[in-house]
Each structure stands twice: as C-alpha cells, then as structure tokens.
From TrEMBL:
UniProtKB keywords: Phosphoprotein, Two-component regulatory system
Alphabetized PANTHER family for the sequence: PROTEIN PILG (PTHR44591:SF14), STRESS RESPONSE REGULATOR PROTEIN 1 (PTHR44591)
Superkingdom of this protein's organism: Bacteria
The UniProt record lists the keyword Repeat: no
Name of the protein in question: Response regulatory domain-containing protein
Amino acid sequence: MSVITLFSGIFCDADAVVRNVMDSTGYPLIDDSRVIAIAADLSGIPENKIQRAFSAKASVFNPFTHEKECSIAGLRLALATELSGGPAVVSGFSGLLLPQTISHVLRVCLIAETPFRITQAMRAQLQDEKEILKQIHVRDADSAAWIETLWEIKDPWDSEFYDMVIPMSQVDAAKAGALIEENLLKDALRRTEVSIQAEKDFLLAATVEMALCRSGHDVSVSAEKGAVVLSINKQVLMLARLEEELQSIAEKIPGVASVTTRVGKDFHQAHIYRKHSFEIPSKVLLVDDEREFVQTLSERLELRDMGSAVAYDGESALSIVNEEEPEVMIIDLKMPGIDGMEVLRQVKRTRPEIEVIVLTGHGSENDRQQCMALGAFAYIQKPVDIEELSDTLKRAHAKIRQTIS
C-alpha cells in the first residue's frame, strides 16, 4: 500500500480533501503538528523553533546555530519514523521531505487561483479581503522558501515535482478525493523491494543527520543499503580532521555499514563551515549607535566562534527581541531615541531569561547601580578588553544553560 502526500495552497479546501481520502482509504493522518511534536522529542528542540523551519524568514542567528537545519533534520527523522509504521496520508509541509527515490508515494498538490482562494476564505471566516490576501502572500512565500530549501525548486506548485496537481477551482473536495483514490491504484505506486529499501535508506540517513546535528554539525546525508555518504557544502580549513570527526559519529549509528565523505557542490562558495558549539554563546545581540565600533566588535566575536546580530538603536533592538530569541545582549547606554537603560528595563520585564551586559563609555556609578538593580548581568566600561568581554559572555551563557538544565 502506498503513501499519499498532500501539499496545498492556503484556502484550497485541503482539510476536506484530506478527510475524504482518509475515509476512502482508511489511512491514518500524519500532519505537520504531529511531525513537529515527534521531532521535538527526538531532537530536543522546542516545538515553536521547529515550526519556524517552515517560515521563509530565517533567524538572524541561524548561520551560527544551524537551528533551521537541525529542525529540518528532526522533521525528517520524525517523518521517517512515522512512515515505518505503514501507509498514511501526510498532509502539509512535511510531505515534501520525502525523497523521490521512494516510489510508492503519491505526491499531490492542491492549488487554485487567488480570487477563488479569497472567496473560499471569506465564506469560511468572514474576514476582510485585504487581510486574506496578506495571509495568502505570506503562506505562498513560506511554501516557495520551503521547497527551494529542500529541492532548489522556486515554484511550490511546479507540476514536475508532483504526480498530481489538482485545480481546486474546478473540482470539489469529493471529486478531488476520488481522483486521488483512482491514481492510488496504479501499478507504479505499488510497494516493491526497491521502494521499501529506499524508505529504509531515508530513515537511516535521517538518523545519521540528527546524530551529526546533536554534535553541532551541518552536513547533507544520503544512504543506500547501509552505505552512508556525508556531503560537506561549506569551505573548511582542516577538511581531513572534519571528515574524520564526521565519520566517527556516523559509524556508531546502528545499520551503518560504511561512511564516505565528499565535498558538495557548494563547497567552493564563500561560506565557511562552522561547527556549532553548545558551550559558546551563538545568539548575541549587539546594540550600539556607533556603527564602526559595533561592526568591529561583531567581527571580533565571530573570530571566537560567537554568533552575533547587530542593532544600531534601541527601537531596532526591541524589535529583534520580539522576533528572535537572543540569549545575551550587549547594549550601550547612550543612544538616540530609546536609550540603553530603557532597553534593559523593557527586556528584563518581558524576557527576563535574556542576560544583558551593559557596555558603555559614558556611564556613571549611579548608572551602574541602576543597571544592576534592573537585572543586568554585568556593567563594563569602554574601552573593553575583548578577552574580558568574551569571558563575561561565556559566563552569561553558562548561567543560561544552567537555568535551562
């Protein structure tokens, strides 16, 4: 029996189609919420962070944390684990994770023109047309970014990627379900020894990829009958040492018969391979209106494998705090608009888990006392020794990790 994946545009009656297919086939449902929950258990990454993997907007800290890549690895492992239980209807973004080598998968896309989708939404939710159109644009952007991340395809509705693309403006949910069931019976979708092995290979590759992510690595993994290939897609100075470390991790996974490493197609691009260290802060937000100073500071921290983002004023800093999840902030006190003291006050009121280091060249003893009373982790005067600041960052990070554990 085959697996069905259903990917759709928003407001294309996908829920009704899924119900019809489940009723006619008796297949259980594996949707995004289920895959995310299992991925969170398998990876240790919170569900809300895994959910962000589906978003077109990546975290500013992702080049250092590899959080999106690790979330995708967790999603792959969760889906592969679930499919080992037998046929199912996989609904949502997760279904696009399945490799084309698994031939017993019927890949279905449900889509319609924008006017139809607006009408459907207004009938169901009675929302304002402008707000509905905004939701469509955001979801379509997420869909496009997702399929490009996974398969380097820019159009999420590209008929070349699916076995069926059903225009929902021309058929109702019942007819769409009947078309899917009809195609499900075709011989090309039957399980074979080859397709079953491909499903096992998918599970093994996902297991290895997750193990590498837990060790801070970001590489592509493929598998074929126990032979695992690791592809390094970023430049690395000591390639042989990295290959040796990757192999030592992968070889310990049950079912792995051999491990081969190779450089991928993006290896020679201007990206440097960084192993994520869980002991070093990688989500540092630097806030200072002195642009040259803060950019230089960011670069010096990067040389010490500390990931940072930069804001040049208090308002931008608070916006980043609302949208991202910085662990540590380094803020100047004297800034135009919202000053550092007010940023500290608001951050500790709304996000008390964030450790804030005040780094200023203009503060007084009274300022220091007030900052510490508001909950600052440290108060340091400029000019600062980079080693002193690095040590302070590590201590702040250690305090956060201790609190989490």
